[in-house]
Design a protein that fits this description.
heterodimer; A: 373 residues; alpha/beta; 5-stranded antiparallel sheet; 12 helices; B: alpha/beta; 3-stranded antiparallel sheet; 58% helix; elongated
Amino acid sequence: MSGALLRIEHLKKEYPGAVPLVDVNLTVNEGDVIAIIGPSGTGKSTLLRQINRMERATAGTIFFRDEEITAPGYRVDLLRQNIGMIFQSFNLFSHLTVVENIMAAPTTLLGLSRQAAYDRAKELLAKVGLSAKALSYPDELSGGQQQRIAIVRALAMEPKILLFDEPTSALDPTMVGEVEAVIRQVAESGVTMMIVTHDMEFARRISDRVLYMDEGVVYEEGAPEEIFERPRREKTRQFIRRLKVLTFFVESRDFDFIGCHTEIEAFGQKNDVPKRVVRSLMMLFEEVVTQLLLPRLPEPPRIVWFVEYNPKEESAEVSVRYNGEHFDVMESDNEISLRIVKGSSENIRYAAEDGEMPNCLSLTVRHHMEPNA
Amino acid sequence: MARKIILLLLSLFLLTGLCCAAKGVTVDGQEIKRIGGWPAKSEEHVRATFHDDIEYVYLMTIGDMMEALRQGKIDAIAMSRVFFNALRAEGEDGIAVLGGPLGQTNYAFVFAYSEHGDRLREEFNTFLRTLKDSGALDEMQGRWMNGETPSAEEPNLSSENGTLRIATDGSCPPLIYLSDGKLGGFEAELLQRFCKERGYNYEFTVAGFEANLASVGNGQNDIGINAAEYTPERAESFRFSDVTFTSDCVLVVRAKTGAEEGIWATLKEKIDRALIRENRWKMMLSGMGLTLAITVSSVVLGTILGFGLCFAHREGYPLLNRALDFFSRFLAGMPVVVLLMVFYYIVFGGMNVGGVIVSVMVFSLLFSFSVFGLLQSGAASVAKGQTEAALALGFSERQAFRKFVLPQAILTFFPAYKTEIVSLLKATSIVGYIAVQDLTKVADLIRARTFDAFMPLIVISVLYLILTWLFQKITNWMLTKLNPRNRTADEILRGVKP
């Protein structure tokens, strides 16, 4: 009636002790590329698993091409032949070769001849650059290659819609690019897609609609620029802002400094921060907190480290507040550390204030930086 | 409280002390502490003579008794003189009778407490009386008393009045023994004369003594011929015929012998007795064949049934699954011997179902539940994502399991499966309990016939090893065939032109 590919009405999913989906309403049109973002545990993956009915909804209805797929007795296996799914952990059949992984469903379920299925598989493999791996077993491939094969396996069924459940989360950072490239290529061919992802840059670049999910509903939706640049509602704004800021609270000398490096790296990835800026941020944290501040601060030390990234300027603003008497770390006698701090940042300012943490140091890290004199 | 416990422990200690430390007796200047033999009559005689001064050790075959005597585990054997004579006739020089007889042991045929049993017994007793009156029985008794065990001959019998089903353990020469697949001995001759006289034919099954009594009791067989000693207690459960044979019970001890034979000569003699004489190697081979047949059939049927159970279990009917869980626990908790006997004597008691069939049924059943259990844990070891991926592609639950989970589960299942097959092979060694002459039972029969405990056991150990090796070879080959990774590119791309 409406021509919509997928219509979700008042969908609710309840687990014992948790209600990830409270009331989801959504229409997906043919050709849509939808990115689903939001904090963890807000039912993004659960929503995908309702659409191909890997899980049964507690209440609500879903129409797929105007057929009610939530109706009792509906043939879910036939439905799933039209809906491809790509998993975080690839889930290739580990006892079968790549080409058999791709051929299994078309030959068994669509009645394709082995030859036809093979030809289709080879054609798709060529598109993702993996023709040479047709007779390899999954465990002989890298994670990125496995995920590319998983996408081909889903495409071989010529699905009407593809569901991606965090397709790059389990990948080594070096392999994210190749998988995203394949997903983009598929998107450009006009296949309808829904992608759950934590990679905001990717979400923004690939999608034409972004859903922000929170509180068990589609909290806000819009074009990528709208959601990422001008979010209208409070929680979306917080979420988008939180993506761009990074805060550490150091309240003991046993603080996990090594873990901070991982977080800075993840922050950098999420916001597409240039490698050089990320490296500078790590270095600054190391020098300012562990070398300059901790030896001088009284017990217990208290430091708040705050970073905000500005993509337009490709610069990061760092502000550090700490306790103790008024003192400017930049007047410390640790020459080596001072030189490193000065060499990797600019606009270094100290301000003495009142209150529990009366010291405030701020500095800027830029991608294109004139070295400090 | 503590005093009570100490008292209890003390009395327990004393009690065990009393039990173990028989003080021993002196017979003709020889000290005797432990006497070995069968339960029933020999034990009765020994207890009546020596009371609790000696310890009585139960041993099941004469071969075992001889071995125990040789190794000094017992000081004497209590047995009928007729068996002593048989030992001597077999060339056993190192033994002698000590002192006088302890008492007399009477042997008789066993019939069921039933109308049919009564009628047959009357008929037999009448025949026995005429035989006695004619003096023929005395002649027979005298002839067999000397212990010779010639190769058996079976006369041609007509079956005009029917065929008698005989249950025998065939392992008490010279009273009853198996020789090249035929029944021989005093009791066999008596049976054959009876049959000839009365127009019967007979067929016999070989099983253990207790199993034979049970099969006569429930009507599966007509007569039990086991060199059965008459005791009043047994007579409460079974009808005995009149006494057919009587022999003194004597103490047999080691005697000083002359020069020992060379070890090679002895070995050659033992091999000759265990394998060559009376074509005993044929018995061994047929026993091995039977063991192999039971094992292979049970493995094949059990595996098919096990996969069936696994598929049925996955259909998710709660009642069926609870029943399967119950059965699997029930079978696991039941000794296999008991299960075999229950099936043979109770479940199929009234029906004409052979021991081999029952063995295959019981072992298939047991094996199927092992396979079922192994498959379940194998399937549980396959990552959940494999099923999810298959379902997401549009495969049904069943297809997902059969095409993707099972082939992977098989690989983890297989090593345990191999072990189960070898365990099954070894477990079949108890089918002798239900009248199947498998490898172990054959060795028992030969042991009983030759009074040699060793050589037949060594031979069957080697044969079991060969079978185990064979099964391992076959299963290893199967595993390489089942592992999808061993396929060639051509096999993977069958039906496809690249």
